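The records we work with from here on pair a chain with its fold. Taken together, the tokens spell out the fold as the letters spell out the chain. To see the layout at work, look at the sequence and tokens printed below.
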Amino acid sequence: MTGSRPPERSFAAAAETAEYRPLSGLAVSALIVGAFSPLAFFSPFLWFIPALASILGVWAELSIRRQDPPRLGLTAARIGAALGLFLLSAAPARWFTHRALVDAEARRFGQTWLELVRSGDLLRAHQLSMAAPLRQPLDDRLPERYAVGQPARRDLEAFLGRAETQALIALGKRGDGRIRFFDTERIYRDNTSDVVVQSYAVTYHDEQGKEKTFFIVMGMTRLPIAEARASDWYVSYVRSDVAPSALEDRKSVWEEARRQARRNHDGEGPQPPPDAG
């Protein structure tokens, strides 16, 4: 009989309908966000991207498993979650490691620069307060470049006129003064350069033999040199008229000590900045 057997085309259509499963939108989202997760290497503010990829991936997999029949996209969800989890750990690890290395380099450079000033190697110290492209070669002819009338001479005189420079020179002539690292106040990026702000404690003995300490806050810049595939440090600023961040709770004592030091030493020769209190 003609109507007893359904057409073969009807069976094929029914099978195709039974096998069709929609694609999970969450899984697709997890995969897309996971693909953008390497952006987390560029800034801590972008660490939310791999975190979001991880959440979407796990959420998508749980959602797919609960559905009957399950939607397509389980592999995409797992890839997105894996990318997110990996980069969520790799990006912070790289960031903290880089900061630790930069901090250690800055400490060595800062200590070396302060010792150059204290020991009287002022030409090299002055050159190291300039970026590498502006710096003169640190060779035997360096004193010639500071001859009277040269632009470098005027810059050197301004450098020697700073209170911090005069204080360190005075302590060096007396054979006194101990310089030690105190604190790292900030590490941040300025375009392609790393900038580190650190404070150093300078301990010396006054005329009565009493031990005193003043602080120098230094900003140091690590400038990448693409041609040499290396980096170079220079001192971007030096201050002794501000308290280190770690001593902000003693700011009023610090400022009063500065005012008292100005009253006591007004009209006298170069003196170390006031101690911390």
Summary: The chain has a mean pLDDT of 83. The domain at 108-265 is CATH 3.10.450 (Nuclear Transport Factor 2; Chain: A,).
